[in-house]
Design a protein that fits this description.
With 421 residues, the chain is α+β, with helices and mostly antiparallel strands. It has helices spanning 3-24, 46-51, 70-81, 97-111, 130-138, 205-221, 255-265, 282-293, 310-317, 320-325, 359-364, 375-389, 397-400, 405-416, and strands at 58-67, 85-90, 115-121, 142-146, 165-168, 172-176, 197-202, 240-247, 270-274, 297-303, 329-333, 342-345, 349-353, 367-373, 392-395. A hairpin with a 3-residue loop joins strand 5 (165-168) and strand 6 (172-176).
């Protein structure tokens, strides 16, 4: 064999090995064996639910839910009151009016002496305005791109932070589904305004949210923010119990996948799920079927035709028949992209965060969410869900099975690609 042939073969082998490493390096999401008899109702088993996802329960918090563009009004108010530190981590960051509004506030606070750190995913932030990014850096904001592609760190090319976090003075924390783009402004009144939910938390749980941000910040910068300005002594300021769940790329097992499994298996009466990219594995569909068999009502809402990822939607459609046969009631939201990631169980406990029900979120991305044990929050989300139902179309099994073979073939093909969607 000639030297050229050997070189070409070696190059092909290297490329194939690199691609295999990039595409297969993921957290394990396989379902664990659960003994339903030992799972208490979710309002009594919060410590167990937090413990199986390597988290802790934090008591004495104050919580407020914000729908759609109203989230940014609350965020701006808290940013303007910051005295010591602002930490913001996000996936989507685009040239937009909301980008300009946030840059105005962040630069003003930085010039007044507040330490401002911003972490933007390198892929999700590709459409950011160079002028606004320069404004941030010129004002002294420490801004980093998470996992910026470089030839010497090719193994991190598939490693993305999908987390959405804001922590102000180490005392107030936000997590949400929103991106920094004008699609998240307004009130979901038309296809150009996404439907989404965020939550503001004040109290001891802010420490855990700060820790999640610091994890990614250290990974990217090798710098650890330390001291009372970042981790102040936090006393109880409310009556809400909360816990933070996160998954990182280096984890052997997906804490978010395990957490979702345990939470839904704990349900005794009702499970409500709203998620924009619902493409779980078939083991999870089996879990839903078992929960329905125990007499629990499960209602799932996903986007309709309005989506920013048609292939992911097609992959999810592949599972519709299995979900409906399992007894899940299935709705497609019609006005715009339903982008929120919400779970409500038994009218007691709720989860809001960044993670989708797909392989990328559960096995690859950095994700974060907050579990909240509070009837008021649960009622807020249930009432919003009831309103969303008025703008949704129910899918029935009889109707779904009448689709053309061609539509089913496209769904099948999309599902084969779902591990990288």
């Amino acid at each position: 064999m000639s030297l050229i042939a050997v070189t070409i073969a070696a190059l092909i082998g290297f490329i194939a090995a690199s691609a295999a490493f990039l595409l297969t390096r993921r957290r394990r999401t396989s379902r664990v064996t659960l003994d339903y008899d030992t799972l208490p109702p979710i309002e009594q088993g919060l410590a167990t639910l937090a413990g199986v996802s390597w988290a802790s329960v934090h008591e004495g918090n104050r919580v407020k839910v914000y729908h759609n563009g109203r989230l940014f009004d609350a965020i701006e108010e808290d940013l303007k009151t910051a005295q010591h530190s602002i930490h913001l981590e996000t996936f989507v960051w685009e040239a937009s009016d909301i980008e300009r509004r946030l840059v105005d506030v962040l630069t003003d606070k930085c010039r007044s002496g507040v330490e401002v750190r911003v972490l933007i995913d390198a892929m999700g932030g590709q459409k950011a305005s160079p002028e606004q990014i320069k404004r941030l850096r010129d004002a002294g904001v420490w801004l980093e791109e998470f996992c910026k592609p470089r030839w010497w760190n090719i193994r991190r090319m598939n490693h993305r932070t999908h987390r959405k976090l804001l922590i102000v003075d180490g005392r107030i924390g936000y997590t949400f589904g929103h991106g920094i783009a004008d699609r998240w402004l307004g009130n979901a009144e038309n296809p150009q305004q996404f439907r989404d939910v965020g939550v503001r938390l004040e109290g001891p749980v802010a420490h855990a949210m700060q820790s999640v941000f610091v994890e990614n910040w250290i990974e990217e910068t090798n710098h650890a923010p330390l001291g009372d300005d970042f981790f102040p002594n936090l006393e109880a300021c409310g009556e809400v119990s909360a816990h933070v769940v996160s998954s990182a790329s280096g984890d052997a097992v997906s804490a978010v996948a395990l957490f979702y499994t345990a939470a839904i298996a704990s349900a005794k009466k009702e499970v409500i799920i709203q998620n924009p990219y619902f493409v779980p594995d078939r083991e999870f569909i089996g879990l839903l079927a078992e929960v329905v068999e125990r007499g629990v009502s499960i209602t799932l809402m996903v986007p309709g035709e309005h989506t920013d990822s048609p292939v992911v939607r097609r992959a999810g459609c592949r599972l519709y028949a299995d979900l409906l046969r399992a007894g899940v009631r299935l709705y497609e939201y019609q006005p715009t992209l339903l982008h929120q990631k919400v779970i409500v169980i038994d009218g007691q406990w709720s989860h809001i965060g960044s993670a989708n029900f797909d392989e990328r979120s559960l096995a690859l991305n950095e994700e974060v969410g907050v579990g909240i044990l509070d009837v008021t929050v649960a009622n807020d989300l249930r009432e919003a869900f009831a309103e969303d139902l008025q703008h949704s179309r129910e899918i029935t099994l009889e109707q779904w099975l009448k689709r053309s073979w061609y539509a089913g073939a496209k769904d099948w093909l999309a599902y084969q690609l779902q591990a990288q969607l």
